[in-house]
Design a protein that fits this description.
With 173 residues, the protein is α/β, with parallel strands linked by helices. The chain has one domain: Rossmann fold (3-Layer(aba) Sandwich). 29% of the residues lie in helices and 20% in strands. The chain contains 5 helices and 6 strands, in the order βαβαβαβαββα. It is globular and about 45 Å long.
Length: 173
């Protein structure tokens, strides 16, 4: 059995004239990453490896989850090849995971994540939002053999937010 947890980086800032790879998280992104991470612990396997894109927004999201979930930062494998928006490339990377690891947590980017979830999971998702957490299990022993799996968990910020008033329905950020 293999379990893949895909986490889309948190909301990033477009305020400064930076390259795409260097964009930091904005305040809403930081808040949402903390929110989702605080609900993620109960959905994590007991052992796992962690990979992250080298884009600043993905790295910072990984750091927030690591802090909240007590994941040693030095165990996160930051990979340039995960700076991709293509689900086919993402699939190739995941399928190369060493089979000694049954559980992989991956911090990456859209459209790759949403498209991957819809191809390999069994629940249609219009969009994995920023800070979105998706867990998919595969009944295989080899990462290269993953095909259609079972989408076990969807944790999205909008579903976790507390509302300030039943009258307004506006989320508190």
């Amino acid at each position: 059995m293999k379990t893949l947890i895909l986490i889309r980086h948190a909301k990033s800032s477009w305020d400064a004239p930076l390259t795409d790879k260097d964009r930091p998280l904005n305040s809403r992104g930081i808040s949402n990453a903390h929110l989702v991470a605080s609900h993620a612990a109960q959905h994590l396997p007991t052992s796992y490896i962690v990979w992250s894109s080298t884009a600043k927004r993905a790295k910072n999201t990984a750091y927030i989850f690591a802090e909240t979930l007590f994941i040693p930062i030095d165990t996160i494998n930051f990979r340039d090849d995960l700076y991709t928006f293509d689900e086919k490339k993402l699939e190739k990377i995941i399928k190369c995971c060493d089979n000694q690891f049954d559980n992989l947590i991956l911090f990456g980017h859209n459209e790759a994540i949403t498209n991957f979830v819809n191809i390999f999971g069994n629940r249609a998702v219009d969009n994995v939002p920023t800070s979105g957490f998706v867990s998919i299990s595969f009944d295989v022993n080899d990462w290269n053999d993953i095909r259609k799996g079972i989408t076990n968990v969807l944790l999205f910020p909008r579903d976790l937010k507390q509302y300030d008033s039943p009258l307004t329905g506006k989320p508190v950020y």
